[in-house]
Amino acid sequence: MRVARELGAGDPWRLGGYRLAGRLGAGARGTVYEGYDAGGRRVAVSVMHGRPAADPELRARLGREAEAARRVAPFCTASVLDADFDGPRPYLVSEYVAGPSLRRAGRVFGGDDLRGLATAVATALTALHDAGVIHRDLTPDNVIVGRDGPRVTGFGVAPGLGSALASPALKSYAPSYLAPEVFTGGRVGRPADVFAWGAVVLYAATGKDAFAAGSLGAVMHHVLSLDPDLDPLPRSLRPLARAALAKDAAARPAARDLLLDLLALPDLPALPSLSASPPLQALPSLLAVPGPSGAPTGGRTCPGPDAPGTPAATGPREPEIVALLRAGAEAGARVRTACDDPALGDLAEAAYAALGPEARERAPAVFLRLVAVAAGGEPVAREVRVPPAAESVLDAFGGLVVRRPGGTWALSPALPYAWPRLRGWIEAGRVRLVARDRFARLLPVLLAVSAVLVMALVAAAIVAGRTV
């Protein structure tokens, strides 16, 4: 079962150099699509609602935050690859993480899996905060349980939150995961992400939102006044979750402190490949950050300011931070869940392999009927009628190739990018395709000219007959 759903009537099929293949999800802030670049790389394209291009200040802020997001270390996060906030559909492109979100995983987590998930999310927050990025919208929907463990997505495009209680931006968020200071108009910084970490870990253990209620006002009351039941968590995780969910932002630990404590748990299974990293028992001392006088601070303060989009104050990423992030990622990589999220190219190759020998021989010619070469030389899908013999080949490819009303067939717009075998056929037949498409464009002109010539000849013959 693929995670992405088919594109709808109002969905774009292309944004910049990316072909879109399906919807991954939609919310108040925008829609996320599965896409492919010209080289066939699978990506996630987040399309924002609104028009930042019309607001220079907003566009500049989003640009700064996207640039900061590109600097996030690739541990337990989906790397930001590209962004364009100037067009009618502003978007941000990130690495595609195959797998369901934590909310869609269809299970609750316990024992080593829960600890691994908590460690992976703390690792991602540590990487974000080290790069000067605040997520602002960490929820179970933005944690993907991928093949190599949980990964955090969705950062880099969240609107700012100041006095959010009176701000329309609040409607773009999941209120059960917002920290108390969001509702009281306080500063929204790294501690808000840590609060969300606690709520996400509790969701993973229970399958329920910790502060869920029937109305926004009730959710606010729960977040501001009530402490959730932490009994479903293992004893080792309860103190960390309790500290993360503190009502006072100043009382919450930094993400890096959470990660250190998680890695130091006595019942954590041995990590499989720490040969390139310092031993875990040495990490606390290695991570001691020099204070103003040069004396270590004990590693209990995250370096860098809290301002969104501001680079970490430590300059180039320190080897000690990289060692900690690597250790956290390796701990999180043990977490596995059922994942059936193949790329379009994998589906197409499986369908091709299932064809009989004769159908395989016909397949290149059949598929090339459904592809055109645009003026810039890039392959694009086109709708055409095909003979009955070709229909039997196309039927084997399911939703990748669909019959349109009126008897025409069409490819998924992304398939020429996503399927390497089809790209090879296109390259091998490019000269013939270009000649065919040019002839197809010239044919109406030739027919029109021919019709004019025939009419002229007929008229001349009539005039000549009358003269005689």
UniProtKB/TrEMBL annotation:
Which parts of the chain are coiled coil? none
Q: Which residue ranges traverse the bilayer?
A: 442-464
What's the protein called, per UniProt?
Protein kinase domain-containing protein
Q: Where is this region: Disordered?
A: 291-316
Record keywords: ATP-binding, Kinase, Membrane, Nucleotide-binding, Transferase, Transmembrane, Transmembrane helix
Q: Tell me the ranges covered by the Protein kinase domain, including all copies.
A: 18-271
InterPro entries with a match to the protein in the record: Kinase-like_dom_sf (IPR011009), nSTAND1 (IPR049052), Prot_kinase_dom (IPR000719), Tyr_kinase_AS (IPR008266)
Could you tell me which PROSITE patterns the record lists for this protein? PROTEIN_KINASE_DOM, PROTEIN_KINASE_TYR
Spell out the Low complexity composition-biased ranges: 302-316
Q: Which Pfam families match?
A: nSTAND1, Pkinase
